[in-house]
Amino acid sequence: DSGVTQTPKHLITATGQRVTLRCSPRSGDLSVYWYQQSLDQGLQFLIQYYNGEERAKGNILERFSAQQFPDLHSELNLSSLELGDSALYFCASSVEGGSVYEQYFGPGTRLTVT
Amino acid sequence: AQSVTQLGSHVSVSEGALVLLRCNYSSSVPPYLFWYVQYPNQGLQLLLKYTSAATLVKGINGFEAEFKKSETSFHLTKPSAHMSDAAEYFCAVREAAGNKLTFGGGTRVLVKP
Q: For FRET with A105, which of A31, B35, B38, B72 sits at 20 to 30 Å CA-CA?
């Protein structure tokens, strides 16, 4: 158990819908990262938040957004969903944003868009 | 942009045999390198990391990796495979100035009895 929790574990929804994925980092970790794992794209970095502020952005679509709240949990919002958004979404956390501290990954949320 | 190449998407080894998973990276500056393992229906677990200290890094579960700058490689090895090593393994790189991890395509390991 990494200490990073993600809810829900599975999500099935229809095209055009909007969903919210939730992540709670390890106790004391200020940084949260979101990654997408799909069969065709592999593991891709989406976005990072550090202590409530956006720190880095990767291959995140405009239909996707994220935020980190004062209690440090984070939410990833996916809207106007398409079939191609079906993937495993991971959240990871680390102690600091600019160090070499390793990232600890949650169990992931499997999103299926039908 | 950084990239990570893992040679071989699938590797099959016999129980007790050497496990060798190859990882090559492209980076213009010395990177930080990681190996993660993903068991079925689970998240990624850190096996080991290289952060510019010793070039031979020992990790959990008997795995180790050697950083070779001249070859831009960070191959993962384990002397003797166990059935519990069946999983997918990911090599990842992070630039010193950045935060995100760039992952390789992953190598799925099958261990035969």
A: B72
State whether A98 and B99 contact (CB < 8 Å). Answer: yes
Name the token pair of B83: 């059935």
Most B-contacting residue of A32, A103, A109, A110 (CB-CB within 10 A), to test interface: A103
Residues of chain A contacting residue B49, judged by C-beta atoms under 8 Å apart = 100, 102
Q: Which residue spans within B1-113 are E strands per DSSP?
A: 3-7, 10-14, 19-26, 32-38, 44-50, 56-58, 64-68, 73-78, 87-94, 102-103, 107-112
Q: Is B90–A43 a contact, with Cβ atoms under 8 angstroms apart?
A: yes
For A48-85, give the DSSP string. Answer: EEETTEEEEE-S--TTEEEEE-TTS-EEEEE-S--GGG
Alpha carbon B38 to its chain centroid, in Å, reads 11
Instruction: Scan for tokens 């099958």, then name that residue.
Output: B110
How far is residue B60's CA from residue B76's CA, in Å, rounded to a whole number?
12
pLDDT per residue as tens, chain B (113 positions): 778 999 999 999 999 999 999 999 987 666 789 999 999 888 999 999 988 778 899 999 999 999 998 899 999 999 999 999 999 999 999 876 667 889 999 999 999 99
CB pairs under 8 A between A and B: 51
